[in-house]
Q: What sequence folds into this?
């Protein structure tokens, strides 16, 4: 547990702190639109975790340059990029559906506070 | 007590994730399990099989075409749900 | 020296996330969330994943922020 251990993992520590901030927002805040912002922060931290796992030192983006021989360690891992491209679009659909539910709840109850909504319901 | 409960839950989750991060390979390692097991096949074979220079596009559209089709289905379902909730007749 | 820029961009992420959590004005939170998401797109491009960076800049910084702004306009702006 020396200093280089922490310096070798700095992307992962940022991911952990973003996950903690998002979970705290989803638990402690009462406004439901603020809860959805916390959900998006949790999503984005997991995306950063995946992209950090696929990186390689001194490598280029996964686009083949020429027809000559392919060296594997010159290109970063393309599989996390594929997974995350699907997950970003799914997160957009989730946010759109959740926000339309929030607008409908505000039209019905006149408030966005989750405790007041539970009391009225 | 009620104000300290979310902080306690978040600290427990952060402790568990910190223990998990300690076992990860170093950032940018060439011989990590994610980079050495499956991805060399895709990097070597992408241009010969799919004929596209961009490997991400080749994997997304050629090997995982049904996955992308399911993604289109998810977006279509979300659009139908938003229209059913907020649309006027 | 590119790692200094990388560290600065990574430190900006929790700061903007804390501003999103702490602000009582939801409009301010939505705009700061747009800054957070665009910062994340720059970090993806710097980590050699340009496809994900383009998708995040279009979907996260553009479409999600517009959806939040539409929802805040249709409901109330201040958090009680």
A:
């Amino acid at each position: 547990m020396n200093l280089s251990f922490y310096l070798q993992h700095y992307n992962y520590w940022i991911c952990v702190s973003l996950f903690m901030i998002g979970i705290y927002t989803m638990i402690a805040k009462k406004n439901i639109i603020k809860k959805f912002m916390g959900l998006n922060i949790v999503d984005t931290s997991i995306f950063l975790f995946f992209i950090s796992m696929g990186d390689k030192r001194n490598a280029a983006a996964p686009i083949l340059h020429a027809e000559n021989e392919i060296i594997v360690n010159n290109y970063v891992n393309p599989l996390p990029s594929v997974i995350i491209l699907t997950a970003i679009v799914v997160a957009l659909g989730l946010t759109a559906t959740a926000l339309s539910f929030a607008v409908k709840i505000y039209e019905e109850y006149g408030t966005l506070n989750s405790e007041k909504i539970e009391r009225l319901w | 007590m009620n104000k300290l409960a979310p902080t306690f839950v978040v600290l427990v989750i952060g402790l568990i994730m910190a223990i998990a991060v300690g076992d990860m390979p170093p950032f940018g390692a060439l011989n990590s399990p994610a980079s050495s097991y499956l991805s060399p096949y895709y990097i070597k074979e992408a241009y010969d099989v799919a004929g596209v220079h961009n490997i991400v596009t080749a994997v997304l559209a050629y090997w995982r075409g049904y996955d992308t089709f399911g993604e289109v289905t998810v977006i279509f379902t979300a659009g139908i749900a938003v229209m059913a909730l907020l649309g006027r007749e | 020296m590119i790692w200094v820029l990388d560290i600065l961009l990574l430190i900006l992420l929790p700061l903007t996330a804390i501003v999103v959590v702490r602000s009582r004005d939801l409009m301010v939170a939505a705009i700061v969330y747009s800054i957070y998401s665009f910062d994340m797109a720059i970090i993806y491009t710097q980590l050699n994943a340009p496809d994900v960076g383009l998708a995040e800049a279009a979907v996260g910084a553009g479409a999600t922020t517009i959806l939040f702004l539409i929802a805040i306009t249709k409901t109330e702006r201040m958090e009680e």
Notes: The radius of gyration of chain C is 14 Å. Chain C has one domain: 2-74. The mean pLDDT of chain C is 90. Residues 2-74 of chain C form one domain.
